[in-house]
Design brief:
This protein is α/β, with parallel strands linked by helices and 338 residues long. Helix content is 30%, strand content 18%. The protein is built from ten helices and 14 strands. A ten-stranded mixed β-sheet has the order 1-8-2-3-7-4-6-5-9-10, sandwiched between helices. Strand 9 and strand 10 form a beta hairpin. The longest helix has 17 residues.
């Protein structure tokens, strides 16, 4: 049975955090909040514990995990080399939603990196996450705490609904603030390469280390390790099929409403259609606020039992890059994965 602990403050939750740290050291799975989404954690250096993450999520073996640490020194111990760019970025953005991909140290098991010779590391900016990692005194591998066919969780209740008894301990630190997963930057190549957009924009990174490349990501065929988590062609997908629309074009929405089916709508524009068949969620027009709301809104629409979800596509500019990436992957045809 899953143990759930509500953490209202670090002092009030100290015993629960220490208990969760003991569970991690014993090879068990612990779900915990970060500033992005809830993570499903295990000892990153324990192959058997990491295998439990893959089993609990139904995660493809070629999909690497991000290893969470609480200091730059701890990150260095996981890498074979620590370039000047890593030092600059860690100093500027850690703790925070930036993951760095570097050549891995031999102590990191292949299962953690999906067989790649690189490891993805970050220091999360959430007090519960940092306290847990500090108490455990180990690096914590942690993808999002959900089954691979589910939207990432931003609350402990989302974790419970998705994983049920597949996780041993859940630390409930309330809703996450960021809402989208971290930016992933590959420093094992020159110039550094953006692997996954997040809430730290490429131009902000370039202000610190200079030019980074922004390639189109290859479609995953399962034959080789992915360069980064979150890069499957279909990803972050709700249970209901999702379609993207230009906010000014109402034709498809009108067509669906005319069928009488229950339709979810994440609206950016002012709603121009009113129907009892519509489950409307008015989304923020600010990209940071939209990102923080997105996954929770998709969970709400799945919970409402809609048969299809329509999402107003936000503007095509860098401020919306991460949001547009998640929406495109969530609406892509084919199998889901995270």
């Amino acid at each position: 049975m899953t143990e759930v602990y509500n953490i209202e403050s670090l002092s009030q939750g100290a015993a629960a955090i220490e208990h969760a740290a003991e569970a991690l050291r014993a090879g068990r799975l612990v779900a915990f909040p970060t500033e992005t989404v809830y993570g499903l954690g295990a000892n990153a250096l324990d192959s058997a514990a990491v295998a439990r993450i893959f089993a609990a999520k139904g995660r493809p073996a070629n999909n690497p995990l991000i290893v969470h640490v609480n200091s730059t020194a701890a990150a260095r111990e996981l890498t074979a080399e620590w370039p000047a760019t890593a030092e600059l970025l860690a100093a500027r953005f850690w703790p925070g939603p930036l993951t760095l991909v570097l050549r891995k140290h031999s102590s990191v098991p292949d299962i953690t990196t999906a067989g790649a010779d690189t490891v993805a590391v970050r220091a999360p900016a959430h007090p519960v996450a940092l306290a847990l990692i500090g108490a455990a005194k180990i690096p914590v591998a942690a993808p999002s705490a959900n089954r691979s066919c589910e939207v990432s969780p931003t609350t402990a209740e989302h974790v419970r609904k998705s994983l049920a008894d597949r996780v041993d301990v859940v630390l409930n630190g309330g809703p996450t603030s960021g809402g989208l997963e971290s930016t992933v930057l590959d420093l094992s190549v020159n110039p550094p390469r953006l692997l996954r957009p997040g809430m730290i924009a490429p131009s902000v990174l370039e202000n610190v280390i200079g030019t980074i490349s922004r390639p189109q990501l290859d479609r995953d065929d399962g034959s080789k390790p992915l360069a980064s988590p979150g890069t499957s062609a279909r990803h972050y997908a709700p249970r209901a099929p999702m379609e993207l629309r230009v906010p000014s074009d109402s034709s498809r929405l009108e067509q669906l409403v005319a069928t009488g089916a229950k339709i979810g709508w994440l609206a950016l524009a002012r709603p121009t259609i009113d129907s009892p068949a519509l489950v409307l969620i008015q989304m923020p027009t600010d990209p940071i606020a939209f990102a923080a709301r997105l996954y929770a809104a998709l969970h709400e629409l799945d919970g409402a039992g809609v048969g299809r979800i329509i999402v107003d596509m936000p503007p095509d500019d860098e401020a919306w890059l991460a949001v547009r990436d998640r929406l495109r992957r969530g609406a892509a045809p084919g199998e889901r994965g995270t």
